[in-house]
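Action item from last meeting closed. Structure (91 res):
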């Protein structure tokens, strides 16, 4: 079972990229909060399954792609917290 985690992580990150960047109009019927939660959970699940997958080239690829997304998400959270604490930056 563990040998398929890398493949499922790659499928989840590709689904995230397709839903977020290529065809975002698919998510228009959903409410805004559910839309964001779906994308965040998809990204985090992809990252966690990449961590626990079996060593190999597929694990390295999926972990690199999903960790980049998680770092961007972490940076956005830090920026939002900074705006809440210190006001809008640059004004």
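Sequence:
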């Amino acid at each position: 079972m563990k040998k398929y985690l890398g493949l499922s992580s790659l499928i989840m990150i590709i689904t995230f990229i397709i839903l977020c960047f290529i065809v975002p109009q698919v998510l228009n019927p959903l409410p805004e909060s559910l839309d964001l939660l779906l994308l965040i959970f998809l990204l985090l699940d992809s990252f966690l399954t990449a961590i626990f997958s079996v060593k190999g080239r597929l694990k390295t690829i999926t972990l690199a792609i999903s960790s980049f997304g998680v770092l961007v998400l972490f940076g956005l959270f830090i920026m939002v917290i900074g705006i809440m604490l210190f006001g809008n930056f640059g004004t």
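Note appended to the action item: Residues 57-86 form the longest helix (30 residues).
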